[in-house]
Design the sequence.
């Protein structure tokens, strides 16, 4: 069951996810975790076709999220691009602050069950995976596929399913996954030239992969909640490596520290009962108006 009662609040969270997708080193999944939307997104995607009438309920929840992602990506593309060009240190430190500030909230969710060695192992795997992806040398791009054959269809569809992990799992770079699979140039060329048959394969492969991965993660959250959340914490913390900028000891460093503090405070507020109190107040206001 979805607990988000306000479509406006869900829309704003979707916008935050869309903004995150623009920033190199930040994944939408990371922001979904920080804003408390992750579990419900996994449930909605994973159960989309699982029960009679379930797709309608899940669609009503997902539409504001998807709309928010589109609005955030389109409306803030130039803004984020300008900030990264003009004040890269401050911008990246703000998002590092968001990640660090979310840790108490995430740790609280992870500690809902008894701590075990599996939690440590899951955390190590999560942070190790993101550190490897952030520090590893990028593989050489393969020549693009421009014509759709049965073999090309199978390779592209399979690569899209694997790459969809990046849209669902926090901290994972989709472009890096596609590079490893030799499909990054093909996807870039397909969308750049609007090669619709190839675009369709990538889109449907990602949709199928998202539903598949979301079901798996929902299963893990239900059966192995604490280890799964410790893995998520590792994935989210590992994202800091991709965002880290050398901090100069001047006004840039000072304003960067302020930006990091603002990000941490904002994230900490999002992880407390502030959201629930805001929703309750807005709900009371609506009832009074009636």
Sequence:
């Amino acid at each position: 069951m979805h607990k988000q009662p306000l479509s406006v609040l869900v829309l704003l969270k979707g916008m935050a996810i869309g903004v995150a997708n623009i920033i190199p080193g930040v994944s939408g999944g990371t922001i979904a975790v920080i804003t408390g939307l992750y579990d419900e997104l996994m449930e909605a995607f994973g159960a989309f076709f699982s029960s009679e009438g379930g797709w309608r309920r899940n669609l009503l929840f997902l539409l504001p999220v998807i709309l928010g992602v589109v609005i955030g990506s389109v409306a803030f593309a130039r803004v984020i691009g300008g900030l990264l060009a003009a004040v890269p240190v401050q911008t990246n430190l703000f998002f590092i602050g968001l990640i660090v500030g979310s840790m108490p909230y995430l740790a609280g969710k992870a500690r809902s069950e008894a701590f075990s060695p599996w939690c440590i192992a899951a955390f190590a795997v999560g942070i190790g995976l993101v550190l490897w992806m952030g520090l590893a040398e990028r593989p050489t791009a393969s020549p693009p596929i421009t014509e759709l054959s049965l073999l090309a269809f199978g390779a592209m569809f399979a690569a899209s399913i694997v790459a969809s992990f990046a849209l669902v799992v926090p901290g994972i770079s989709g472009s890096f996954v596609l590079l490893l699979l030799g499909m990054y140039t093909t996807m870039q060329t397909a969308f750049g030239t609007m090669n619709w048959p190839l675009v369709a394969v990538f889109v449907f492969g990602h949709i199928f992969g998202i539903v598949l991965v979301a079901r798996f993660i929902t299963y893990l959250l239900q059966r192995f909640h604490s280890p799964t959340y410790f893995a998520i914490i590792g994935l989210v913390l590992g994202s800091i490596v991709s965002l880290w900028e050398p901090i100069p000891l001047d006004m840039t460093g000072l304003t960067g520290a302020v930006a990091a503090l603002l990000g941490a405070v904002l994230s900490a507020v999002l992880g407390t009962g502030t959201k629930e109190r805001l929703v309750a107040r807005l709900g009371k206001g609506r009832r009074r108006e009636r």
Notes: DSSP finds 16 helices and no strands in the chain. The mean pLDDT is 80. The two ends are 26 Å apart (CA to CA). Residues 7-289 form one domain.
